């Protein structure tokens, strides 16, 4: 008797065959090299789930406990691997639950394809059960979206979806597929998409721009590089390092650029932005040349635009033409993929050291160390700090973990103090600031980078926004390490209330459940640390565990994150306390 | 920066969702669309959006970049009024009795070079093509007599300079 598998093998061998739309979707995913997707079934997507059942030896579907979890898990997978993450949901609420993940992926340029079921074509627009206009809803938060209403459209649209998601400046794509298109048959033939005529994802760097940029770099007395996620997305880590080392220019990272270069590199001077390092912020307004590479001058980076780097010439290496002169007016714009642009730039650059300029960063770093870092990392008073927990994780992981952080104080502390030796190791919700991101994103990151330690660092607020994904972790035995830094507050909002709202702590105090018991309820190994003396040992135990592990650390309740650029203030006005 | 009238011309693939995507870009930045027209263009299968805004050049440029970023947009441009030839059309529905009772109406029709599209026992319809000010002037003149219905189209524009969409498309398809 012909088994299901034999039948499948035979079908895969044919290039043209008559199959259902639902089965075609699976073949498209396989053809795109997808072997893992996240999702949640429901009425309008059931034909696809039926096919997933038949293809489970080739394509793993991870059942999350909420569609938002599926979207963030796909994002975590994409960020850790550089591949396209895939999430699937049913129509209506299933689809709308993906929206936060889409918005997050859109603003952080994460390649993702979301597939949603939709009511049958003849019911569209009739307010049918679980009908929602997900195309209309998702339009502002997707790079592209499309509603498939005929089975025959599936191969071409799926190919286009993957091409658009991963090419150029990556982003999320949503394909909404009506139920009739899943049931109906089509002659299946798959051709990967290699171009869309109205879409030019890779602008060619212009040699004249590069020469102008090189001339500015070679003659600058105080040049300064700020690099962002464009370096990671463009696989330009080596080129960035070569540029920094040859030119001797001090380099700072944006939150999403973090881990593109090893943290301890002597020319790496720290993080820019609201809670970035002191020198990198203040000296932005003292450099004579700012070289921005694969970053987009977000307001959390620039602070007040009217006082941002006004004294400096600015060069912007950027793949997306719409980012040029969007927030900051630049003197030279080099359009193109970061890898290609930097490769062409490198031979034009003269060797230099800029020692005196570096010593200015060093001086500021020492000031920050005395005022902030020392007390964060090596506190003398009782009460655990978030900083020392990150320090302990660095030690236990040998600076080699993937750190997935949520949003808030712990995120800023993680991005300030976590140390990295490999790229794609810092996964966090940067642009959108999505609380609830880290737990599901860590699942995706771990499944994408199985051989690496993945540590989720989460606050007690964000943790409870997607806490249900503990079940996904248990069911799949995903060996993520979960660290909840519990200060019984929505810490960042509380900090703002303290500093800018005269200590009116409106709705920022949290009465929390017993997190250890909850983790144990999900059958996870769990431990709570309340004393400094236990911290290193507990972190080590967690890191040595082969299974998922939950660690709650009770930290100081009312610590603040410094330095800080108050909202709307200049980078020069960064506060150390 | 000074606010001015700008005409944004968008050449795009003919796609259902694109109007929504493009209007969202204006919405997000609180830029009012003063006039919008969508039609086919000189190229087979290529649509043309003509959008008129009253804002600064800086905002217009940023909006055009965001529009051009959309996958199905081939190319977007912006122009000042001086750089374009532009027209709008309007229809006026007026009671037929006025044609006989008010002799001045006949003069208005003659002077404004408007066309009488149809005449029935109850009403007649005037069509006027021209610049916004000309249409508004005609509206001002007719208003005292009573206008039963009035409608004005979006601006349509051709640019004095060449737009080179065909050669751009050829390059894109290479």
TrEMBL record, chain A:
Its EC number is 2.2.1.6. Binds 1 Mg(2+) ion per subunit. Its cofactor is Mg(2+); thiamine diphosphate. Keywords: Amino-acid biosynthesis, Branched-chain amino acid biosynthesis, Magnesium, Metal-binding, Thiamine pyrophosphate, Transferase. GO terms for biological process: isoleucine biosynthetic process; L-valine biosynthetic process. It comes from the Bacteria. It holds the Pfam family TPP_enzyme_N. InterPro entries: Acetolactate_synth_lsu, AHAS_TPP, DHS-like_NAD/FAD-binding_dom, THDP-binding, Thiamin_PyroP_enz_cen_dom, Thiamin_PyroP_enz_TPP-bd_dom, TPP_enz, TPP_enzyme_TPP-bd. It catalyses: 2 pyruvate + H(+) = (2S)-2-acetolactate + CO2. GO terms for molecular function: acetolactate synthase activity; flavin adenine dinucleotide binding; magnesium ion binding; thiamine pyrophosphate binding. CDD domains: TPP_AHAS (cd02015), TPP_PYR_POX_like (cd07035). One of its GO terms (cellular component) is acetolactate synthase complex. Residues 406-553 form the Thiamine pyrophosphate enzyme TPP-binding domain. Pathway: Amino-acid biosynthesis; L-valine biosynthesis; L-valine from pyruvate: step 1/4; Amino-acid biosynthesis; L-isoleucine biosynthesis; L-isoleucine from 2-oxobutanoate: step 1/4. Residues 210-344 form the Thiamine pyrophosphate enzyme central domain. Residues 20-135 form the Thiamine pyrophosphate enzyme N-terminal TPP-binding domain. Belongs to the TPP enzyme family. This is Acetolactate synthase.
From TrEMBL, chain B:
Coiled coil: none annotated. The keyword Amino-acid biosynthesis applies. Pfam families: ACT_AHAS_ss, ALS_ss_C. Keywords: Amino-acid biosynthesis, Branched-chain amino acid biosynthesis, Transferase. Pathway: Amino-acid biosynthesis; L-valine biosynthesis; L-valine from pyruvate: step 1/4; Amino-acid biosynthesis; L-isoleucine biosynthesis; L-isoleucine from 2-oxobutanoate: step 1/4. GO terms for molecular function: acetolactate synthase activity; acetolactate synthase regulator activity. CDD domains: ACT_AHAS (cd04878). GO terms for biological process: isoleucine biosynthetic process; L-valine biosynthetic process. Residues 7-87 form the ACT domain. Its EC number is 2.2.1.6. One of its GO terms (cellular component) is cytosol. It catalyses: 2 pyruvate + H(+) = (2S)-2-acetolactate + CO2. The keyword Amino-acid biosynthesis applies. It comes from the Bacteria. Dimer of large and small chains. Catalyzes the conversion of 2 pyruvate molecules into acetolactate in the first common step of the biosynthetic pathway of the branched-amino acids such as leucine, isoleucine, and valine. Belongs to the acetolactate synthase small subunit family. This is Acetolactate synthase small subunit. It comes from Zeaxanthinibacter enoshimensis.
